[in-house]
Amino acid sequence: MSTDRRRFLGWGVAVAAGAALAPGLRLIELAQARSPEEAASALQRWGLLVDITKCADCEACVTACREENGWTGHGRPATDPQWIRKVSLRDKRTGFAQTLPMMCQHCEHPPCVDVCPTGASFRRADGIVLVDKHICIGCRYCVMACPYGARSFVSEEVTGQKADVPRGIGVVEACTFCVQRVDRGDIPACVEACNRDGGKAMVFGDLEDASSEIRRRLAAGPSTQVRPDLALNTGVRYQGL
Fold first, then answer.
1. All structural domains of the chain with their residue ranges
2. How far apart are CA 237 and CA 222, in angstroms?
3. Alpha-carbon distance 214 to 204, whole Å?
4. pTM to 2 decimal places
5. Does domain 3-239 have CATH number 2.60.40.10?
6. β-sheet bridge partners, residue 100
7. Which tens digits make up the pLDDT trace of 172-203?
8. Lower CB density within 10 Å: C or N end of the chain?
9. DSSP assignment, residue 181?
10. How far from each other are the two terminal CA atoms of the chain, in whole angstroms?
11. CB contact at 8 A, 139 and 117
């Protein structure tokens, strides 16, 4: 698709969708600045480490994400928003079972960005992958391209929106690492809840900072990506998997 056509589609959809979104920051503005004074920097890469051996059989991370970002379900897993979900794994040979949280993996080479025809799916300089709802046309190419099933299409009217988390019907959404919290110096809601109410299985931090807890934990023991064969260099890593 030509640059002019992308620009035309983006402008047209922004006009049509603007009124349907909650008031607040546009995500494209979040891409350009962590705060009015500080730009997102490639010197950082935000990442998440999940220790599966500590992941409790609870929904603390899911509940916290839902409350922080204002998404709700209607008891229909096939169509409900799922910014984060708990996945159960079972070894058929031994019967050993594990539970892990699955969300956008914030890839260095995100397939969702590659296939997006309008540029609505994009990756910030600091590694956070987002969707600009103002130019998303709801084509769902990114949903099909994501190997983690991490993106949801909003098919029903949304209510209870948060001012700094714009949502709208007819667009795609996914985990944002709670970018609104990260940009003010906090950690994602799921991590906060896991360390308060769950099994203390999650660590969030800067993968480029050798002194950060997440880097120390990664250096202390083996970890893996989900589908490492895809060579996407995910920002979410798992231990004990």
1. 3-239
2. 10
3. 6
4. 0.82
5. no
6. 87
7. 999 999 999 999 999 999 999 999 999 999 99
8. N
9. H
10. 40
11. yes
